[in-house]
Amino acid sequence: MLNQFPNATFALRQGDKPPIGNGCAVGGEFVFKTTNELFSGQRSIIFSLPGAFTPTCSNYQLPGFEERFSEFRALGIDDIYCISVNDAFVMNEWARHLGIQNVKVLPDGNGEFTRLMGMLVAKTCIGFGFRSHRYAAIIDRDGQIEKMFEEPGREDNHNGDPYGESSPENVLLYLKQMAKLTA
Questions:
Q1: Catalytic residue among 24, 57, 82, 125, which?
Q2: CB 2 within 8 A of CB 143
Q3: pLDDT tens-digit profile of 77-86?
Q4: With a threshold of 0.85, does the pTM exceed it?
Q5: Which of 10, 11, 16, 78 would disulfide-bridge 42, Cβ 3.0–4.6 Å?
């Protein structure tokens, strides 16, 4: 189990204009940010999932973190990030499609960050290539992993997509319990 949050570089897209009709957002540029640049000095939640535009991720996990954003903020979380082994265009369009305003999407197109987290798994059995195992983590202001919420079954070509440990409800429950202990 990792204690220190790994440093990796994300290729983000900034400044793209929304598409007209069914086109692709264009006009922006790639901006490269490291985990140290993104997370330094703040307490954050990251959650990673197998893919944008997939059922559990789109119907429950990302919208759930978005809907509870203010509750997380009230419990000392500065930002929430959704990471997936998808490119920046896909991640931005997914967030736009779902109306995401508060959760920040981070594309891990090459799977570098996911590999450093020890969560890169083959999902070749369903044509996904290599993707992230589903998990969430709380990262403290010093870049330490405070708490991991890992779904069972982290293995290549696992039969199924467990969801519960990394749900926003479970992460929120943990934060509420910790707040009671320190009150």
A1: 57
A2: no
A3: 999 999 999 9
A4: yes
A5: 78
